Amino acid sequence: MSCTHLTVYKEQKKRFCEIGKYEGTPTEEDCGGCSEYSGPSRGLGDTVKNVISKATAGKVKPCAPCQKRREALNKMMGYKKKEE
Ligand code: SF4
Predict the structure, then answer these.
(1) How many CB atoms lie within 10 A of CB 4?
(2) Could you report the per-residue pLDDT of 37-49, keeping only the tens digit for each?
(3) Residue of 30, 36, 67 with the most ligand 1 atoms within 8 Å of its CB, for mutation
(4) Residue 7 near residue 20 (C-beta atoms within 8 A)
(5) What is the rounded CA–CA span in Å between residue 9 and residue 43?
(6) Would you call 73 helix, strand, or coil by DSSP?
(7) Where are the domains of the chain?
(8) Contact 36 CB / ligand 1 (< 6 Å)
(9) In which band, very low, low, confident or very high, does the pLDDT at 61 lie, cut at 50, 70 and 90?
(10) I need a labelling partner for 79 at 20 to 30 A (CA). Which of 1, 25, 29, 49 fits?
(11) Do 77 and 69 form a contact (C-beta atoms < 8 A)?
């Protein structure tokens, strides 16, 4: 997955989060469940979130239950990952 906040150094096998989530060094699993993820949809939950955001021009801000729905839908219907 390619979050816009993520930088990966393959030689050192290190991952850095620009906004400091997970102490700045998230695992792939951390990013998979992160509420601040920004990038291509990881699953149906991200797609629903993006549609709501576009349809409301960003006026509806996600709340805790929205994040739970997002994570649950991503788990139930995750999209296949492309090789990075
Ligand atoms: S998914 Fe979250 S932890 Fe991972 S890089 Fe993006 S903002 Fe940081």
Answers:
(1) 10
(2) 999 999 999 999 9
(3) 36
(4) no
(5) 25
(6) helix
(7) 1-40, 41-79
(8) yes
(9) confident
(10) 25
(11) no
Instruction: Measure 17 CA to ligand 1 centroid, in angstroms.
Output: 6
Decide if pLDDT at 83 tops 70.
Answer: no
SS3 37: coil
SS3 labels along 22-35: HHHCCCHHHHHCCC
pLDDT digits (tens, 9 = 90+) for 6-58: 999 989 889 999 999 999 999 999 998 888 999 999 999 999 999 999 999 98
Entry pTM: 0.77
Q: Which two tokens stand for residue 81?
A: 């990952």
